[in-house]
């Protein structure tokens, strides 16, 4: 049962309920990788997860709710940010993590499916926005620390710097189909650092 006002599928449960959630989300991920969002069916997910169909319908109720909860789980499970004491090294770590994720056959396919779903469903789009807000804010601390060390102008927007690191990699994944190699990740990080030091990512007034 969810607390009053909570969105279905987003409450963090414990015990058996946690095991059911984990199994259903894994099955949801498998279905997205294999069939895409259009092939996501609650009954089929329940069968994959080995749980009752009524459990899935009662707890989540829709394919979009499943994807939203999967994105919550993905944000919770993401690796923590680097903390090397150097902006360049921190952002290189960020770029390489993004590249490894997107270049992975399973994870890259999963992200393409989720992004495709978000393009035509507002609930999924909002869940995806929340996912990236969590990840950007996690890594923005690296930029904030660089500002405090005097590496960057004081008016630098940390979130924009972090977005600038991953944007070229997502472009390769979704648009150009160019290889997602480590050189492209390193180039994105170095470009973001150079632009930030030049004041390109100053906060707008």
UniProtKB/TrEMBL annotation:
**So which domain of life are we looking at?**
Bacteria
Where DNA binds (residue ranges)? Answer: 41-60
Limits of the HTH tetR-type domain: 18-78
Q: Which key words are in the record?
A: DNA-binding, Transcription, Transcription regulation
Classification via InterPro entries? Homeodomain-like_sf, HTH-type_TetR-like_transc_reg, HTH_TetR, Tet_transcr_reg_TetR-rel_C_sf, TetR_C
The UniProt GO MF terms for this protein read: DNA-binding transcription factor activity; transcription cis-regulatory region binding
Q: What is this protein called?
A: Transcriptional regulator, TetR family
Origin species, per record, is: Goodfellowiella coeruleoviolacea
């Amino acid at each position: 049962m969810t607390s009053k006002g909570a969105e279905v599928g987003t409450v963090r449960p414990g015990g058996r309920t946690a095991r059911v959630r984990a199994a259903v989300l894994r099955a949801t991920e498998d279905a997205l990788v294999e069939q895409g969002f259009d092939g996501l069916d609650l009954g089929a997910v329940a069968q994959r997860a080995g749980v009752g169909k009524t459990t899935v319908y009662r707890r989540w109720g829709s394919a979009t709710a499943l994807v939203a909860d999967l994105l919550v789980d993905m944000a919770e499970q993401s690796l923590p940010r680097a903390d090397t004491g150097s902006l360049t090294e921190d952002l290189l770590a960020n770029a390489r993590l993004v590249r490894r994720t997107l270049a992975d056959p399973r994870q890259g396919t999963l992200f393409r499916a989720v992004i495709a779903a978000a393009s035509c469903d507002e609930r999924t789009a909002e869940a995806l926005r929340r996912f990236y807000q969590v990840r950007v804010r996690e890594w923005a601390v690296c930029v904030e620390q660089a500002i405090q060390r005097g590496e960057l102008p004081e008016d630098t927007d940390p979130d924009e710097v972090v977005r600038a690191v991953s944007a070229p990699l997502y472009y390769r994944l979704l648009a150009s189909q160019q290889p997602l190699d480590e050189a492209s990740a390193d180039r994105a990080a170095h470009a973001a650092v150079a632009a930030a030091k030049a004041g390109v990512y100053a906060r707008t007034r």
